[in-house]
Design a protein that fits this description.
This protein has 4 helices and 15 strands. It has about 240 residues and is of the alpha/beta class. The protein has 3 domains: about 100 residues, Trypsin Inhibitor V, Chain A (2-Layer Sandwich), CATH 3.30.10.20; about 60 residues, Trypsin Inhibitor V, Chain A, CATH 3.30.10.20; about 60 residues, 2-Layer Sandwich (Trypsin Inhibitor V, Chain A). A 3-stranded mixed beta sheet has the order 2-5-3, covered by helices on one side. The longest helix is centred in the first third of the chain and has 33 residues. The chain is elongated and about 130 Å long.
């Protein structure tokens, strides 16, 4: 009998011990796990909507800070912590950052924009035009904006004064004197001055040296825009 009782009690107490251990582990780890919920995404929703969404998950919404944001409307949530998808215990406080609405104004890029159009753009943004200065430019057409001060993308406030630099077109240069030069020399001189060779005429004047330039148009010393073509007349022998 004693042997049989021993055989009976060992498995009995072992099963009780195992059951107790399982219950303990479930109590320590299982119940808290079942009490965890997934954090919902409340970014871009209003603060009131965010609170309601959190309460439905038995979570609490806590406003951590407010900041200006040009893309998120005032009173809506910009960011949250913990992030959406995180598993947390019920009753956890979820911190959020709330938008204070549109902040500063970013100065627009106005390079190559005609002056009148630039005036309209700035006025619609609540910005004012200050001084307007002019500069020559090889790349910006006459009457268009070269640059602004403050520079583009600078964050400023409504009513800020913006100074503009407007293009007068390509800068003027003085036509060099290429009379008496050969064509190759003349071309090099003109190109160094920012000009180019235009139409070439040939005449024959036996009283002057051949293969030299007798006339040029525009004339030497005249102010002309860069890249202007200079027409040349060259003294050449008559073909027999």
């Amino acid at each position: 009998m004693r042997g049989g009782a021993k055989i009976f009690f060992i498995p009995f107490f072992t099963s009780i011990f195992v059951s107790a251990a399982v219950c303990f582990l479930f109590f320590v780890y299982g119940i808290p796990f079942l009490e965890r919920v997934e954090v919902p995404d409340v970014r871009t929703v209003t603060l009131d909507q965010g609170r309601l969404i959190m309460e439905n998950r038995r979570l609490f919404l806590l406003v951590e800070s407010e900041t200006e944001d040009t893309s998120i409307p005032e009173g809506s949530i910009i960011d949250q912590s913990p992030l959406p998808g995180s598993l947390v215990k019920k009753g956890t406080h979820i911190s959020v950052v709330v938008s204070k609405g549109k902040g500063g104004i970013a100065i627009p890029k106005l390079s190559s924009v005609p002056l009148e159009e630039a005036r309209k753009i700035l006025a619609e943004m609540g910005l004012k035009i200050g001084s307007i200065t002019e500069e020559s430019s090889d790349s910006i057409t006459k009457g268009s904006v070269i640059s602004t001060f403050p520079s583009p993308d600078t964050i400023t406030r409504e009513g800020t004064i913006i100074d503009l630099v407007i293009s007068t077109g390509k800068g003027a240069v003085i036509v060099p004197n290429v009379l008496g030069r050969r064509l190759g020399q003349a071309k090099e001189i003109l190109e160094r001055a920012g000009l180019k060779v235009g139409h070439i005429d040939y005449v024959c004047d036996i009283e002057k040296l051949f293969d030299i330039i007798l006339r040029q148009n525009p004339r030497p010393g005249k102010n002309v825009p860069k890249s202007t073509a200079v027409n040349l007349t060259i003294n050449a022998e008559e073909e027999e």
